[in-house]
Amino acid sequence: MRLRRHRRSLVVWSQSVSPAGWRAASRPARARRIRRWIRTWLLLTVIGVLSVARGVRARWRPVLAGVVLTVIGVILRNGPGNVVLLPGLLFLVAALLAPGRPDGEGIRRADLERELALYSTPAQRRDLEATLDQYPDGDTHELRDILARQAAAACDGRFPGGPH
What we know:
The protein has 164 residues and is an all-alpha fold. The protein folds into two domains: 30-97; 103-156, no CATH class. The protein is built from six helices and no strands. The longest helix is centred in the N-terminal third of the chain and has 34 residues, at 22-55. 5% of the residues are buried.
């Protein structure tokens, strides 16, 4: 019995795919191109959302309400969704137009509210207000505003220094 000779340099002179099958053969490449396009746009969308989220930190509640209502409105277009789509879009526009606080401003104000909440007895409050009366209102307006909010929260039975 004789061993078969191996062909070392095999050249294909004709295509194995007929002209009718070219479209079927190009589908995987098209699918890869579409997937790459979707991944690219998804990445750009995530980068854009993160940059917008940095600027929206101070006003995230209206943005969240606007996103939820808008998504519900788009999903339920032909029914009750039309009723919530417009308010959702209005929440988003209002959040974009509202002035935001700088990053350090929110942290500083939260620390200040926490420190002023330590003055809890009426005697401590009177002493603090007497000290504030010695300074002009332009310098102490923020402290007075926080104290007024905490006093209103104490009357309502809410936790002082909590979300407004």
